[in-house]
Amino acid sequence: xxxxxxxxxxxxxxxxxxxxxxxxxxxxxxxxxxxxxxxxxxxxxxxxxxxxxxxxxxxxxxxxxxxxxxxxxxxxxxxxxxxxxxxxxxxxxxxxxxxxxxxxxxxxxxxxxxxxxxxxxxxxxxxxxxxxxxxxxxxxxxxxxxxxxxxxxxxxxxxxxxxxxxxxxxxxxxxxxxxxxxx
Length: 183
Hints:
Order of helices and strands: HHHEEHHEEEEH
Helix content: 25-40%
Distance between the termini: 17 Å
Oligomer: single chain
Shape: elongated
Strand content: 15-25%
Number of domains: 2
Structural class: alpha+beta
Number of strands: 6
Strand order of the largest sheet: 1-2-3-4-5-6
């Protein structure tokens, strides 16, 4: 039994069924553990309701988002409850990612120019790789989507939807905090 399962089992405010449901939920969805204040020894089922709602919404959004990318030449690298990261493999995918059809918000990236693949070809032939990050819910700092550019010397930067250049440090700190949360 995990540490969280033992903690849940000792909560006197929950019924046996609620404890079993919570243990099952967090065993299947450990990514949501950081949404609970585990220092609170008097947790009630109501304290978990927001996490259940977030889980349901995230699963629905993730499913729809993954389907959204199925018609394009890309490789999905990973996803969390909050975002998905992928690599566009051709200009048609980059064009889609920059469009309003992808998440209802457009982006000003030249590699996704609707008119021509010239910029995409220029950058990718020079060895630059692009990673795309799509947030299921609008992120307060990064927006709905962003693109990460890594050149052949492993120098990285990223661009927001408004095509604003940003140092990779801000994004690296965010990814570090999200991917290592609760560990």
